[in-house]
Amino acid sequence: YPSEFLVQKITEDNQIPLHLHVSVSLQYVAGLKGNALVEFFHGNIAEVENEELRHLMWSSVLFYKAPNVEVMACVLLSTKAVYFLLDDSFIHADEHQSEFWTKENWDCDNSSFHLSCCFVLKLNDLQSVNVGLFDQYFRIAGHSADHIVTCLTRDSYDTHTFIQQLMAVLSLLARTPSPEPVDKDFYSEFGSKNTGKMENYELIHSSRVKFIYPNEEEIGDLAFLVAEKMDCLTDPQSLNILLYVLAFQVNLIEGSTPNTSLLQPKTLILTSSDLFLFNEDYISYPLPDFAKEPPQRDKYQLADGRRIRHLDRVLMGYQTYPQALTFVFDDVQNQDLMQNLALDHFGE
């Protein structure tokens, strides 16, 4: 039986983000409070009788086998597994991945009956956890392509809290201990004597699950990529990335009600001179051990880029978090006006 504090904490966390739409079945789950939520977990989700619900989180998730479909999920962490209670729209939206989901009979004749799909990743199958840049997302990986899931929390606090809770429950697993490591100093542990470069910071938990955090080189690689996209002579070394955040680009749907909008996931990167929107692959990198070839698309694909000096004004909405920002630019065809004038009037 969970403590009153834990029940209260799980109840407080059981809130769907306002800007994301979910199915009726998940709305039902979000309406559960207190012990009703714990009973729902044990009656409908838990696989063994003695497992305990430790943490609940609402997050968008991506699957390695369906990298183009971001779906809302209620993520439940117990002492035995991580459960992803999925929006049922995912099952229908991804028909080409038929071998991933064993669909028997999703459509029920009774319209009052709502079904959700639950994906289970047992803690004993967990091998590594990759934390994304600035804790905006994390990827948990098992032993095969079926067992790789990315949680796009878009919130460093949610990521940090989940990782802490995951480490706590992994400590309860009865795994055979690894051989005692030979004592190494800091430089031999994390550095390469040949190159002198720092490798990714890797923490091996007592359960032998690897927790891998990004290093400074990833920011350097990103700065180089951004400088390349700027199509100018900027030295990547002098380029500072001021902000990296996972956001949504709002596209209004034509011919529909005024409030209807389509949210497209984007990575927003702000430098001292430019504002960029990238389509980022959050699930394929770094490459899993079983991958035989690199992914078909690059990690970062430029969607839009504008000069800050062309920014005319920023409009801010008055709604609660998440905040909506509208950037209004006064550039002409996204070109540098003065440069064009100089070429047209003073060049050959």
From TrEMBL:
It holds the Pfam family PH_NISCH_C. It is found in: Cytoplasm. InterPro entries: PH_domain-containing_M2, PH_NISCH_C, PH_PLEKHM2. It comes from the Eukaryota. Keywords: Cytoplasm. GO terms for biological process: Golgi organization; lysosome localization; regulation of protein localization. Residues 241-347 form the Nischarin C-terminal PH domain. One of its GO terms (molecular function) is kinesin binding. The keyword Nucleus does not apply. One of its GO terms (cellular component) is endosome membrane. The keyword Cytoplasm applies. Residues 114-178 form the PLEKHM2 PH domain. This is NISCH protein. It comes from Semnornis frantzii. The lineage of its organism: Eukaryota, Metazoa, Chordata, Craniata, Vertebrata.
